[in-house]
Each structure stands twice: as structure tokens, then as C-alpha cells.
Amino acid sequence: MAGTEDTIFALSSGNLPAGLAVVRLSGSRAFEVAGILAGTVPAGRQAGLRTIRSRNGTIIDQALILGFRGPNSFTGEDCVELHLHGSRAVVSAIYGELSGFPGLRLAEAGEFSRRAFENGRLDLVEVEGLADLIAAETEMQRRLAVEQGFGGQSALYREWARRLTHARAMIEAELDFADEDDVPGSVSERVWADMGALYLEMEEHIAAAKAGEIIRDGYKVVIAGPPNAGKSSLLNALAQRDVAIVAEVAGTTRDILHVDIDLDGYLVRFFDTAGLRESEDRVEQEGVRRARIALGQADMILLLEEIDSVPEHDLDLPDAKVVRIGTKLDQHDSSSNYDICLSSKSGEGLGQLRSYILNYLQKLWSGSLVPNRMRHVNHLKEASNFVAEALNGQGLDIRAESLRAAASSLGRITGHVDVEQLLDVIFSQFCIGK
């Protein structure tokens, strides 16, 4: 990333044209340059209406200006926001003026957030939560991002790290000052009981990671079955639009199609697959191969069969994930051989299917703190393993070292320990103005 001594600027609002465009400046020259363009910057974190002029005196726009003195700003540096009219021409003119000042440059992707991290305004968990909040498309994604981005998850990890530090301090005290009367004597009672409880808390937290992954990345529902079972018709009915081609010809669907649906705040990703059958057609064979891969990655499989039809062969699917769906209810009577019977044509049974999926999702996540990134899960597993080593180890000095390693793993999650190599990857996820 370019020099941190520069004052940076970028559009921090949405795509242009828009009703409003917010251009943010951050760095040591932010107030000085804003004052040159606007005459003065309002004091005391107040908004003021100013005329923005080029350096030759030409009026560019009228804008609200807000100033935030560091360290009490998003980045921890002096920041100024120009709330302009959302015209491409206005923003381009502002960019042209700002670029002409020495020491000013356009911000790189995620650079405002990176400066906030480097100045101690956010930790890495909060940064990633902020990225997820910006990208959130459903209510549950928003809630999960808020828990992470506004410090709840970081507070949990800090408390765990505090308990590990306290345990190490007690162990060191017993090792170094065992003869002193004011040093707690029973490490096994005072420390290891708490470390045992901490281990169980970590394991429970890690076990909830799948829920976080599903909320963040979507619940994968694969629609499978033999040809002409109504798979593409069901996808279209769920999406309420024509996503897939529907025809009576067997093998019409050759590739995997998918549609994302917001189901009462949860992101559900439905995948339509090729009909599962033996075929001499090489293209259809490839479609079946891809369908098998999708089935292996599914969170739920909707196995479709036309009601009263005779299965051609055993599809060999994992029972735990399978929901048996009888289709074409408008042509047949309902059957107890299926979990749900429906008609994509009439819509009968579709509400029952949606309720079935939603009922499972509502049990999946209660709104509690859960890890939702593989990076977090990997470091949590490391920390948990080190705590287990300490609980089962021999020798206080070795066990104390295991606790130190556990605290170090937790520190890598929040960015307090050895994460320099991760920063470019994490901050590149952001748009330029954030």
C-alpha cells in the first residue's frame, strides 16, 4: 500500500449519478485543503454549507462540509467530508482539484479502513464485519455483520485472552514465588478449572461456525432427481421468473443453474441440476458429473420424483440431507411416500416447502456470536488445541507455554499478533471509498 503519510481522498458514497456524493479526505492536510476549496471548515464537528471553488475561483458546487479532528474520526486521522451533489461532473471536478495539491492522492481499495486498523480504531474482526455489513443483502446477513463489526465478537475474544493471561500469571507466580504466603497455591483449582471451562466455550463456539458460514454465504439447496421430474419448473416457481428452460425433452438441463432467494431474511441459494441418469451423450454426462459435485456440497437436497412414478435406479444420496418431493400434484393425488407434494404449475405445496426450509434455518442460528470466516475458525481451533495441550500437559512451565500459544492464536484473529501478511488480502475486499 502507498505511503501512509499522504492525505487520501475518495468517493465514499454510492454509484453516480446520485442525489448526494460524499467525498472523504483523511490525513494531515485534510483541513488545510478543504479550507482552501471551501473558505473555512466548520468547527466542533458541525455541518456547514459552503461554496466549493477551484483554485482559480470558479464555482464547482455548494456542499455541506463536516470536519472530524483525529483521533476522534473513523480513521483516527484528521478527516473532512464534502457532501456534494451527486453528479459525475461535480465529483470529477473535485477530484481534479484535490489531485493538484502536493501530498494528496486517490485512496486505494480499503485504505480508509486500513488506516482505522493501524490507528487502533478497529481491529481485524471489526474490519471484516464492516466489509460484510456493506455487502449484506439479507436481514440475517446484516445482523451477523453487526455482531461482528460493532465489537461484540472482538469483546468475546478479548475476554478469552484476558483469562488466558490471568492463568499464565498465576502459573508464573507459583513457579517463581512458591514460598511466598500471598501467592495463590492451588493452581489446579484456581486455574485449570477455568481453563477447562474456557476449552468447552471455545469448542461450542467453533461448532457454531457452520451456522455463520450459511448466514454469510447462503444456504445451498440442490434440486435433484431424474429427467422430467420438474426440477427446472420448481426453480422457476421459487424464483417467480423464468430462470431455466422447461421442456418435455429429457436432458434439457445440461449445466447447473442457480438463483438466490431472500427467504424471510435468510439467503437461500437454489441450484437446478441435470437429470440423474445414465446417458451416452457426452454433454449430458458432464452435466450429471457436475450435478454430483453440487450434491456433495449441498446443505439440503430436494429429491424430486413425479408422484406415483417408478425410480429408474438408486441415486445413492445422503439421507440426512434429502427431502423427498413428489411433483406434478396437479396431475396426481397426494402421496405419503414423500415429505412434501407440490405442483410448480398451480403453486400448491410451494408454501409448505418454503416453510420447511425456513423452519430449519431458524433453528440453525439464534442470533448469538458465531465465527463466520475460515480464518477465524482456523485460529480458534489452534487456540482450542493449545488449551487442550495445557490441560493435559506435564510440567507447569510447558503448560504455561501452551496457554501463551493459545493467546497468540486469538490475537491473530483480531490482528494484535503477526498478521501483516493478511492485511493486503483483507483490505482489498473493500471499495475505494472505504
Secondary structure blueprint with pairings:
Elements (H helix, E strand, L loop, with lengths): L6 E5 L6 E9 L3 H9 L9 E6 L5 E10 L10 E8 L1 H12 L4 E3 L4 H8 L5 H12 L3 H11 L2 H25 L10 H4 L1 H16 L1 H9 L1 E6 L6 H9 L17 E7 L2 E7 L9 H16 L2 E7 L15 E6 L12 E2 L8 H15 L9 H19 L3 H19 L5 H8 L7
Parallel strand pairs: 1-6, 7-9, 7-10, 10-11, 11-12
Antiparallel strand pairs: 1-2, 2-5, 3-4, 4-5, 8-9
Description:
By secondary structure, this protein is α/β, with parallel strands linked by helices. The chain has 3 domains: 115 residues, Probable tRNA modification gtpase trme, domain 1 (Gyrase A, domain 2), CATH 3.30.1360; 127 residues, Four Helix Bundle (Hemerythrin (Met), subunit A), CATH 1.20.120.430; 149 residues, Rossmann fold. It has 15 helices and 12 strands. Strands 3-4-5-2-1-6 form a 6-stranded mixed beta sheet. Strands 8-9-7-10-11-12 form a 6-stranded mixed beta sheet, sandwiched between helices. Helix 13 runs antiparallel to helix 14. Exhibits a very high intrinsic GTPase hydrolysis rate. Involved in the addition of a carboxymethylaminomethyl (cmnm) group at the wobble position (U34) of certain tRNAs, forming tRNA-cmnm(5)s(2)U34. Its cofactor is K(+). GO terms for molecular function: hydrolase activity. It is found in: Cytoplasm. It comes from Rhizobium puerariae.
